[in-house]
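Supplementary Note 3. Input sequence used for the single-chain structure prediction.
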Amino acid sequence: MTEQDAADDTAATEESTASEAQADGNVDADFEDAPEDVTADEVDLGEFDVDDDLVDRVAESDPEDIARELSALRTRADSLESQVEQQDGDIEELEEKLKRKQAEFQNYKKRMDKRREQEQQRATEDLVTRLLDVRDNLERALGQDEDTDIRGGVESTLRQLDDVLDAENVEVIDPEPGGDVDPTQHQVLARVDSDQPDGAIADVHRPGYEMADKVLREAQVTVSESEE
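The predicted structure, written as discrete structure tokens, is reproduced below.
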């Protein structure tokens, strides 16, 4: 063997020894969190659900392969942890957005309620304003001399009032005698003898009113009752 061959063998041996030392170091680093003074024989594997095939594979694997696999697992665990943190941040952001939307909706609802209330108030003010003209006309009619015929003025004022009610979609419930009784629109005051068929409307005591298909006041009627 030449001196050059001997030198090459020595270098190869040193390189192999260095690789083994590095592998041992990686394995030691991966298991550096293990409790001190505990041997493999002292670990009670009965407390864990251990896959026997995994144990055999670890025992038969090269330390460098185990170290690389552990490193890959740790890298994946770090990546998953980062994803979880990102998702937690996204959830927190969505929750904040939801809270803002809920607050905006509540504010919108309050504004709409206030607007509806204001519109109702304006509608009532408009109706009262038109009724004031009717009242003024009635007051002027009553202010005439006793000998003055105020019938024409009263009739004119009544027409004015009817116009106001008509503008508000108010309709009169004034059934004809002989018609059928409608419990939703008619209030029966009494049963009386009349020329109308039995159970039909005999007379209207007071008309009723309805607005937008809602009965404001029922018409008061009497009902015919035939003699037996």
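Confidence is low (pLDDT under 50) at residues 18-43. Residues 21 and 111 are 76 Å apart (CA to CA).
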